[in-house]
Amino acid sequence: MSKGFFFNFFDDELPDRVRYSWSTTPVPIDMNCTHGVQWMWLVFQQCAVSPAEITAVVMGLISVFSWMLNGIPQIIENYKTGIPDQAVSLFLLIFWTIGDSFSLAGCLLTHQLVLQVVMAFYSIVNDTILLGQYFFYRMRHKRLLRVFPNDIETLLPSDSASDSEPPSSNHSQPVRTGSAASLLSITALLCVGLPCVNRTETPLATDPSLKNGPLFALSVHSTTLSPESPFYPSPIAYTGYVLGWFSSLMYLSSRFPQILQNWRRGSTEGLSIFLFMFALLGNASYGLQIFLTSTDTLFLLHSLPWILGSLGVLFLDVVILAQFYVFRRRRQRNPTQTVEAESTAVSITI
């Protein structure tokens, strides 16, 4: 989703300076953002002057609203179909919850705006509702299986593919493989990414009067290159950067279990397509926002976890959307399909 947030950790003070927009005319910067869009400054403390900066804020708003709406369609879908324990991967929900928890911790550690803290908390509430639905229906299906062990198939929707693999106990293996692959990807990316960034010795400085929070990418108006300065200006900056890596990698890894779950079932029944359409829109607009803010090398290095957490999952979201298309086309071609794969999925989950 990614549901990643961008933290303002680098708060070194700089003197007044000049900002250049897409035109060649320099625009002076002051503490009150006199030449910027005032409502953006008052509401988000985002001093947007140039067309690129204004567009970046708009992209940030699109991302925010996308993530606000993201979980609602799936909550409704769970209520309508009653099979979230079959349709939604538990690891998808767990990784999202952990990632959002890291985001909230980063907001609190770095004293972000109230709006940003509320948005992070809102995401956790959505995750909690989805997890609650998952376990509620899982326990319900366990009880039904004990009472009606031979009639469980009649309780399931018939949206499994007729040409899916024959049901067997081996169907549970892709889920275990998916979880292991996800955890392995987290470890590998973390080991590769953090040391690579730590070798950089030039800091990124921003004006403290132009603070940006996790919902909006950090505005960079100039950089100060100093070999004597550390890459992380403070312990909080280092902690926040590490939290950013963990959060983004959780979001990135969450898609693999869901892709494998869909493939194992041969169906996307019970999943809301809007869950991933909003995720795609939110991640794309968030990634564009970062690059519209600045293409400075140091800025992009500091933004690396959030770039990975947003643009890195776009391909995986497209894969899931492609699964919706393929499985629904298959269902249309085979209207008399059986429910064998779905009933096998129930027995595995239970």
Explain the layout of strands and helices.
Layout: E1 18-20, E2 26-28, H1 38-44, H2 51-70, H3 72-81, H4 84-87, H5 90-109, H6 114-147, H7 173-198, H8 235-253, H9 255-265, H10 273-293, H11 297-311, H12 314-333, H13 340-349
Antiparallel strand pairs: 1-2
Description:
- The protein is mainly alpha-helical.
- Helices cover 62% and strands 2% of the residues.
- The protein has one domain.
- It contains 13 helices and 2 strands.
- The chain has a two-stranded antiparallel ribbon.
Which key terms come to mind for this protein?
350 residues; mainly alpha; two-stranded antiparallel sheet; elongated; disordered C terminus; basic amino acid transmembrane transporter activity
